[in-house]
Amino acid sequence: NAGVTQTPKFQVLKTGQSMTLQCAQDMNHNSMYWYRQDPGMGLRLIYYSASEGTTDKGEVPNGYNVSRLNKREFSLRLESAAPSQTSVYFCASIRQRGYTFGSGTRLTVV
Amino acid sequence: KQEVTQIPAALSVPEGENLVLNCSFTDSAIYNLQWFRQDPGKGLTSLLLIQSSQREQTSGRLNASLDKSSGRSTLYIAASQPGDSATYLCAVPRRNSGAGSYQLTFGKGTKLSVIP
Q: Are A43 and B106 in contact (CB under 8 A)?
């Protein structure tokens, strides 16, 4: 099925560990986004990529890096995980202002 | 800075009832507003996109209205069903999003429970 695929679905990290969240879309969309969702805070934009080869910071970029590997893939990296990064992470892509979200990665940092 | 508020945070209704979810935003200079649905442990599904030039948008039992001048939108759900139980979020585009980007500012959502 066409859409946005995120891996892994669940992850537990120890403080200081690193990991990369993967996102791929097969809809040929130019723009891709990473959001985090926290209780009481709603969804907040971490980073986005307006097109292949470009990335920009969103509202809460500290502690994260991103790579737009090609048009399909947009990864989010935590270099040194902190408990404050415990959250649900969503990747999304858009076309003509219509958002398609992945099913999310639930990350716990202990 | 745009702020989006959804009240109430949670709502419980008996099956078959018609209901209204509310969304308000502080900067009325928006060019559209979207309503999303989120099921527990799942991603967001777009329900309706209403352009600033529109007053209403309908999809099945759902009807979204937009009043830019008052900074309000409502999502009307007719004849509610247990399957409608989910969290509903509204979102508006951020002003001055970077070139080629389309960033959204989300409300915190209304958690709807439809009781059989």
A: yes
